[in-house]
Amino acid sequence: MKSSIHPPLYLLVAVISFYLGSFFSVPDSPATSSGSGREQTSIGDSAGSSAITGAEPEAVRVTSGSEERAAGTAEPESVRDARPPSEPDSTASPVTANPDVKADPEPVAPRGPVLKTAHGDVEIFPADNPWNTDISQLPVHEYSRTWLQSIGLDKGLHPDFGTVWNGAPSGIPFVVIPPGQPGVKVQFEYPDESDPGPYPIPPDAPIEGGPDAPQDSDRHVIVLDPQQKRLYELFHCFPQPGGGWIAGSGAIFDLTSNRLRPAGWTSADAAGLPILPGLVKFDEVESGEVRHAFRFTVRQTQRAYILPATHWASRSHDRAHPPMGLRVRLRADYDVSGFPRRARVILTALKKYGMLLADNGSDWFISGSPDPRWDDEELNTIKRVKGRDLECVLTGPLVRDQRP
């Protein structure tokens, strides 16, 4: 009978330890297997990810055509987790896409306010155009109190639009033309600061104040071409028997561009600005939200302007008067809850987008387009807002006439 052979005790312990160690071992994580043993934390930006430096972010500057506007200080985005994802399990069964689960849609670029017309919808300048810029968080101008006093602290805002006034539609009208509207020749009083045209003005284009408006009134004519995305605006217009027109000045705007008028040039407006984007329009107000600034006038301005204005219209160098292009907003703490619905919509837009000083005229007159659906009594409630309820906003430096 052959005797049994027992292995040494130390050998048995070694074998058991090997198998137990293989069963409970943990593989290196991807974050530590590269050798550094540390995760890299980064902050994402529009161009990708960049390492945190701890430096203070610089002010963002937004350029629109020839305008450069300080838009505040950029805030860093949320810190992203930079750990690499887990390696897929090669032994796992393939995953079949669920046809009922829709992928996240691609982000849509913001758009400016869209005007719906019988000949197609048209965006009234890009979202980052000065008219469409949210200025609710911009700082108050150091001259704010001075300029408000110059215009009138106790004078109320005046809606210079509505249904009918003096037998003519109240406000600045505009016409939307169909495709193929022929252009006509316009003879200008100020041709050196006017775009030569031709201008596709229909023979029956509405004139501000009506066809019998006083000879010394503004008599604006505004033509919108939604197909070509062009805006044609004229000042002091008179139709001629041969089909052409005589006008004081005229300007053509590309609605897809933020390009400004040349420095020192007027337009159909004294400040060199387009008129249509600043009009209060019934359909926008009725929708419950207006997404642009308004046009307004004051009696006395100084010989200076702030971009996006490009022209002054004054002989005064008195810095107590406001400059063309001044942006004014309704104070954020002003309670609008007691106003009628449409008035609230207008006043809410005045808090977010404000209004741009575009011409010499009556103090605190806000421009809009005429519409028989306006309720004039409802609009008149806006007059309860006084100059002291507003504040002038810092949007850029003044361009002054340095000549004596």
Give a verbal description of the structure:
- This protein is α+β, with helices and mostly antiparallel strands and 404 residues long.
- It has one domain (114-400).
- It contains 5 helices and 24 strands.
- The chain has helices at 9-24, 144-151, 282-287, 341-352, 376-380, and strands spanning 42-45, 48-51, 59-64, 67-73, 79-80, 114-115, 122-123, 158-160, 164-165, 168-169, 175-176, 186-188, 221-225, 230-235, 238-239, 245-247, 249-254, 294-298, 304-306, 327-330, 355-360, 365-367, 390-393, 398-400.
- The strands form 8 sheets. A 6-stranded mixed beta sheet has the order 8-22-18-21-20-23. The protein has a 4-stranded mixed beta sheet with strand order 11-13-14-17, with no helix packed on it.
- The longest helix is centred in the first third of the chain and has 16 residues, at 9-24.
- It starts with 8 loop residues before the first helix and ends with a strand.
- Mean pLDDT is 81; it is low at 1-97.
SSE blueprint and pairings:
Blueprint: H1 9-24, E1 42-45, E2 48-51, E3 59-64, E4 67-73, E5 79-80, E6 114-115, E7 122-123, H2 144-151, E8 158-160, E9 164-165, E10 168-169, E11 175-176, E12 186-188, E13 221-225, E14 230-235, E15 238-239, E16 245-247, E17 249-254, H3 282-287, E18 294-298, E19 304-306, E20 327-330, H4 341-352, E21 355-360, E22 365-367, H5 376-380, E23 390-393, E24 398-400
Parallel strand pairs: 8-22, 11-13, 12-16, 18-21
Antiparallel strand pairs: 1-2, 1-5, 3-4, 6-7, 9-10, 13-14, 14-17, 15-16, 18-22, 19-24, 20-21, 20-23
